[in-house]
Amino acid sequence: MSEHNGHGFEKGRLQSLSDGVFAIVMTLLVLEIIADEVTGAGSAAELHKALLELWPKVLSYAISFAVAAVFWIDQHADLHHLTHTDNRFLWINICFLFWISLLPFSAAMLGEHHQYAVASIIYGCNMILASLTLHASWLYAVRNHRLVKPDLGPEVIRQANRRLLVGPPFYALGIAIAFHSPHASYLVYVLMAVLYVVAGLVPIRWRTRMLGAADGG
C-alpha cells in the first residue's frame, strides 16, 4: 500500500502512529503510581500505610487510563469514516497526540497534588485541549469532503460532533470549581471518567435513540 497517492496520504500510517503513542502513554501512567515510600518500606506496617496513601494516585491513574482509552476509541471512530488524509489533517492529529502525550504529566500532578487548585487546572486544560483538537480534526475532515467517505450521512456527522464535544464543558466546570474546592474538582473528573466508560458500554442503537430524543426528534 502506498503512503501517498494522487488523493492524499493513506490513513493507516496515522493509525499506527496513534496506536504507538497511546500504548506508551497508557503504560507510563501506571509508572506514576510507584512511590518511594512503597519501595522503601521497611516493615509490613510501613508498606500497608504507604499503600493506603497511594489512593489519590491510583484513582488518578484509573480515570486517566479510562479517558485515554476513550480518546483512542474516538480518534479511530473518526478515522473509520475517512478514505485518506492530507498534510493539514495529519498535523492537526499530531497536535492532538501532543496533548495526549502530556497526560502522564497532568495525571501525575493530579494524583500527587490533588489538594491544590493548580493541579486540577492543569489536568482540566489538558483534557479540554485534547478534546478540542480531536474535534478540530473531525471538522476539518468533514468540511474538506475529499477526506471522508462519499456516502457519509449527516446524522453520523452530528453524532460525532456530540460525542466529541461532551467533555470540554464538564472539564471547564472542573477548572472553575478548582478555584474554590480542588477536591470537588477532582470529583468532577472522576465522574467524567465514569460517564465515559458507561457511555461506551451502551449499545450504539440505544445511544442513537437517546440523542434523537434529546434533540426532540
UniProtKB/TrEMBL annotation:
This is Uncharacterized membrane protein. The keyword Phosphoprotein does not apply. Keywords: Ion channel, Ion transport, Membrane, Potassium, Potassium channel, Potassium transport, Transmembrane, Transmembrane helix, Transport. GO terms for molecular function: potassium channel activity; proton channel activity. GO terms for cellular component: membrane. The chain crosses the membrane at residues 20-38, 58-77, 89-110, 116-142, 163-180, 186-204. The keyword GTP-binding does not apply. It comes from Methylomagnum ishizawai. InterPro entries: TMEM175-like. It comes from the Bacteria. It is found in: Membrane. It catalyses: K(+)(in) = K(+)(out).
